[in-house]
Amino acid sequence: MAITYYLEEEKMRAETYLHFLGKKVKDKVTGIEGVVTSVSFDLYGCIQILVNPGLDKDNNPGEVRWYDSNRLIVSDDARVMEPVKLSEWNGPAALPIP
Q1: What is the model's pTM?
Q2: Which of 29, 64, 83, 94 has the fewest Cβ atoms surrounding its Cβ within 10 A?
């Protein structure tokens, strides 16, 4: 019973960070803005969020960087793209694309 409760609690905690996916965020320290494209939960408890700043004024891709989750604030609640629903995701294809 205790293990089941712990797993459910951890699942709920993880889902609170997945809400960042596809949203525009701003780093509180540097002011860099971009769209969240990935969330990572590492072995030691750090939750890192990958931010893609998009194109610069010369249409060159900006540098994509990882940030600690507590450094970011959502600057626009509308998603640029809906993330995959994990409950409906079946994983990668069994065979490579020919």
Answers
A1: 0.75
A2: 94
Measured in Å, how far apart are the chain's first and last C-alpha atoms? Answer: 46
CA–CA dist 54, 70 (Å, integer): 22
d(CA 30, CA 71): 9
Q: Where are the beta strands (DSSP E) in 1-98?
A: 23-27, 33-41, 47-52, 65-68, 72-79
Separation of alpha carbons 1 and 11, rounded Å: 16
Give pLDDT tens digits along the chain (98 positions). Answer: 444 444 556 666 777 888 899 999 999 999 999 999 999 988 888 899 999 999 999 999 999 999 999 999 999 999 998 887 766 766 666 655 55
